[in-house]
Amino acid sequence: MRHTPAFEQHAHNGACSARRKSLFLFCLAPRFAALCALFVAMVSAVAAPNVLLEDTDVRIVLASVAPGQKSQPHHHTVNRVMIALDDGKMRLAFDDGKVVDREWKTGDVWWDTKGGTHTSENMGGAAYRLIEVELKRPGGGAVAWPADDPVATSPAHFKVELDNEQVRVMRLRLAPKEKTALHSHQLPRMMVYLNAQQVRMTLANGRGSTFRYKAGQVTRGGKARHAESNLGAGPLTTLFIELKPFL
Question: Is residue 151 classed as helix, strand or coil in its secondary structure?
């Protein structure tokens, strides 16, 4: 029987060990890749905002914040219109030491200016959702409102919530079976439906269409002349974010 020299046995054992290691890595690689893919997907899901609508004028994001959840330090590069879909309490802590506590009710609207690195934290006992309308264009252009502007023709239904050089925000409220007067929308606008709705849009010629919207849904519209009717069993509330022209 042939005696295998020690150095040959060592080389053989080394080769076997290398093959076993390669085989182990080969078997592990698909699982490792799958775990990596899952990790990346989870991180992406956390980091990526829920964008409801985006074009050259705006980006509209839905932010959902759990109780006690705190953001990483960040700042906003554009002004925003904020719309609350739920009651909430938030603490903003700025890097200069300033702390701002904010509380709101469902349906509230406010203006949020850009800048200021800060963290935001949900200080309430329940999750809340915010719709953030990020304004990409500066505005500042003059607006000549038409004679049949919604606020002029239906002042009992349309109320101005916010008005500055970039936007005008109107709130529409209609009771069941109630209808607005015929009016014109002159500017491009975003609609945020604060509750589930069934609405009839009637044109000046009498023709119309019926639309259904979900609570929290966002749509975009252009110039139009029509009247709105609430066909639902309950009151409806819609916010109109009108984009003013830019210089």
Answer: helix
